[in-house]
Amino acid sequence: MREAYTAARERAAFLDRSDRGRIVVSGADRASYLQGLLTNDIAALKPGQGCYAAYLTPQGRLIADLNVYELGDVMLLTSHGDVKDAVLAKFDQFLFSEDVQLGDVTSTFAQFAVIGPDAAAVVSSLLSEVPVGALRALPEHGNIRGQFAGTAAIVTRTSDAGEPGFDVYVDVDQREALILALNRGGVASLDADTADAIRIETGVPLFHRDMDEETIPLEAGIEQRAISFTKGCYVGQEVIVRVLHRGHGRVARKLVGVRVEGDKVPRPGAVVRSGAREIGQVTSATVSPALNQPIALAYLHRDFLAPGTIVTIDGTNATVTALPFVPLA
Fold first, then answer.
1. How far, in Å, CA of 270 to CA of 220, rounded?
2. 219 lies in a domain?
3. Whole domain around residue 272: which residue ranges?
4. Of 178, 197, 216, the domain-final residue
5. Where are the beta strands (DSSP E) in 178-315?
6. pLDDT tens digit string along 72-114?
């Protein structure tokens, strides 16, 4: 774990993300169609740009969180793999006379994250028509097209793995060739536990781990990244606006960081207490290589969110900590 972690933080490492869901939205009306469904300003995206967004129920609860990329001729949406079918089905329900076509391209692409300070140099060395300077200049969620082994490839700028880098999409038939090229280039492969440690250290919530269909975006703390507060209507907007304006943004619970004493990593679902009172539960936990101690993400009651608050998890003392534990580079 330590070797792969060090590579990701100091050089470069790669992570297989082929299990994510991938949807293509095409047609002249794709931007205006998604503008009414998703929380961020999709209509403002120009070719080569993208954003993070949420798809909500009318009650303001999450159906999915997504990365949205305007590629110029289509939009590529990626989500947690096990919500892709639900998203596609709901999108289809809202299609009437719009010039929009939906496509499931999950099995078409292999997707890998390449993260770390040297990620741009690594990706540029693997792909043709993708200069390293262009990659370094890409803003968050920016995207560019290139070639891998003579076939089309897409690169997107990401940080949701917990360390800045890029997602590389190649034809699924090129999956093993890309892995071989990464290995030959000396790029470390991230195992799932190490990747999770990096994500948790940076405080990035994961769908169906740290947020689910009962979560509203403000509880998970994703509103600044996922929601446009200046665009027009979208599904679930009423609830979000009511919480922000009438409730002054206060929610009953919120996702926070917790540093745990000792060496025992709390289990997901472990109850967090203040004295005898149950005040929340753990969603993700790991041993932080950077801090050399157990850390966790947990939902806590709003009266216990202040950094420095002492709580207990399974009888062990822990301290509420502002996120991220380890800032993005």
1. 18
2. no
3. 252-321
4. 197
5. 188-189, 253-260, 271-274, 277-288, 293-301, 310-313
6. 999 999 999 999 999 999 999 999 999 999 999 999 999 999 9
